[in-house]
Amino acid sequence: MPTVRYPSAMIAFSLIEVMIGMSIGTLALTLATALFLQVREAAVRQEMLAEEMATLDSVHRVLTQDIHAATTCSMLGSSFVLNELNGTQYTYYVNNARELIRYRTGGGTAVLALHMQSFQVQPEGRDMLACQLTLTTGQSDWFVARLQGGGS
Q1: Lateral strand order in the sheet of 100-104
Q2: Is the four-CA dihedral 136, 137, 141, 142 of positive or negative sign?
Q3: Which of 30, 38, 47, 145 is 20 to 30 Å from 57 at the Cα level?
Q4: How are beta strands 100-104 and 89-94 bridged, if at all?
Q5: 0.85 cut: is pTM over it?
Q6: Which is nearest to 131 in space by CA: 140, 139, 120?
Q7: What DSSP string describes 98-129?
Q8: CA 58, CA 60: separation in Å to the nearest integer?
Q9: 66: closest CA among 6, 110, 117, 12?
Q10: Contact between residue 57 and residue 135 where contact means Cβ atoms under 8 Å apart
Q11: Distance CA 23, CA 4 (A)
């Protein structure tokens, strides 16, 4: 009678062992994918915040310089108007597309910022203006600038 040889338990794997190995591999892959997605989402949020801060900083800088160069200012409805000593007049407003616009009388329109919810200016003492910029995300910035009209 011929001898029947069975595979050694050390060499062969049973179906249960293969299924356990695949389950552990699937679990590890799922956890790695979830971790990757969370890191990516955090990076996107951080990038959006940096972009919002850069937008506010840029508008803050432009408005501070324009207010500093202005001799007079006024509110015209929801628009803010600055008059410079040389006769240049700038009008600022937020349009329906949520863009902060700077319009120069006589020609020249610039979009200063996108996704702008509101732009508000209030007098804050003699020759001082308090400005608030608010983005559609709720991020906002307050600053105070002085009307100087080119003087010191």
Answers
A1: 70-76, 79-84, 89-94, 100-104, 109-113
A2: positive
A3: 38
A4: antiparallel
A5: no
A6: 120
A7: S-EEEEETTS-EEEEESSEEEEEEEE-STTEE
A8: 5
A9: 110
A10: no
A11: 33
The angle at the Cα of 55, spanning 50 to 61, to the nearest 5 degrees, equals 125
Lookup result for tokens 């552990």: 24
Amino acid at 18: V
Position 16, amino acid? I
d(CA 38, CA 13): 36
Q: Are 148 and 68 in contact (CB under 8 A)?
A: yes
- Better-scored residue on pLDDT, 7 or 48: 48
Percent helix, strand and coil across the chain, each to the nearest 5: 35, 35, 30
pLDDT digits (tens, 9 = 90+) for 30-49: 999 999 999 999 999 999 88
